[in-house]
Amino acid sequence: MTPPAHLIALAAPQLLLAGASLGLLMVGAFRPRALNLVAGLGVASLAAAAGLALIGPPGQAFASDLVADRGAVFAEIVIYLASAAAIVLGQAWFARRGQARFEFPILILIAALGMGMMCRAGDLLSLFVAIELQSLSLYVLAAFEKGDGKSAEAGLKYFVLGALSTGIMLYGISLIYGFAGSTRFDQIAAAVAHGASGGVLVGLVFLICGLGFKVSAAPFHMWTPDVYEGAPTPVVGFFAGAPKLAAMVLLARVLTESFGPALAQWRQVLVVMAILSVAVGALAGLRQSNLKRLWAYSSIASIGYALIGLAAGGAEGVQAMLVYMTLYVIDVTGFFACLAALAREGRPLERFSDVAGLVRERPGLAVAMTVFALSGLGLPPFSGLWGKFYVFKAAISAGLAPAAVIALIGSVIAAYYYLRLVKVMWFDASEGAVDPPPWRPRASPTAPRSSSSRWSSSRWRPSIRRPAPPPWPWCADKRSHASDERTRLETHPSRTGRRRQPRRRRRRPSHGRRDGPGLPGDRQ
Fold this sequence. Notes:
Blueprint lengths: L3 H7 L1 H19 L4 H21 L3 E3 L4 E3 L1 H27 L6 H18 L3 H19 L6 H32 L4 H7 L6 H17 L9 H7 L2 H7 L2 H17 L4 H22 L6 H21 L2 H27 L2 E2 L2 E2 L9 H4 L1 H15 L5 H15 L3 H27 L53 H11 L33
């Protein structure tokens, strides 16, 4: 029997994130304006969870429902760091638009908790709970931008199609349990060690299809472009990174630990999905003019490359998949971090024409976006090249050279839209000035202002010399400020700080009548 201290040490990252989510929810409920406090504690909780995962002991807990090994720990650390970056970027992005709410960091924490459980799942039931914990948070994040119809549409589409994929996955789990007699990965592997029955293989196909939806693999990719286009920019950067890595790690654990003896059967399914994903991502991305939709198809193609590495099987294939997905998470998070920092007249940049001539206005961000785009392409000497190198090497070693050649051709086709993005940023003419970064100090009121300055935005135009409000309570109409000021000076001379001068009375003709002492100069 495992001692309680060992159980707590194994599950320490998940326990920390669960407690932090509940605690921050209470803080936000009683102090809804403490946005920076909630966000800061959320980032600190994710960093602490990554540290606990790194120093935690390996082993199993809760009847093998939770498994801690080197692969799970590595993926967890990457996921927690990417989630912390998503909180920092998203909180600042929503704050600049006046839509910051304390629920955003909490939803990221809950999603990270589900992704950590996905990496450590050792049972089909814990697999299902972890996926739904992550998915429910992502549904809300997709529709988080209040008042935006596209964001609401993205959340609704994601929820409806996600419910469909959950039903498909549950049907596969029920078939596997019925024919294998267990939901634990090790017992399923023992049941199929001497050959998998037809019922188990059918259930496995349904399970792969359900997980294929979570990773946006073709032909289960139909939700990805619309959801990416409608979701807020930092949320899209989070969607394209950490959840994909968690789902790929879970798929690798299911296939290698539970159905390792049936490698020849499930390899065929993965190869077909990989080739379709590469083809769809490379060809459909050619016609895109929206940057979010472009990266949606780029993520579909990237999942195809990862599936080729996973189809190779064995430790080499899993390691190649982990290396490729980790580098892709870095690239996509960095690209969307740069994109979230850009705006024109308060409007986010989402189209190719929006980033035209960016190198002349924001050269640092333009260079960073170029590096991330070329790394996603796999162009040397950037990091994406090494991810694809390990994937293709594992595929060729496993006898999947034709699939590797098709994926390489797809990568050459996809180079068009990556290089097109670089060309637009470096050589095209700009449509207008990009807003200054939010951390730049405000310009002096006497300095000349350009038409692109944030001072000239139609959303907010402060006055340089705004008159002070009148100090007397009986003047309610600000439009009569000048006349009331004259009245005040005449009736209350002590408030002016100087003595009131006597008014000169206009002389009237007397016509020989004198009602009092005459004025100087009058005829006597």
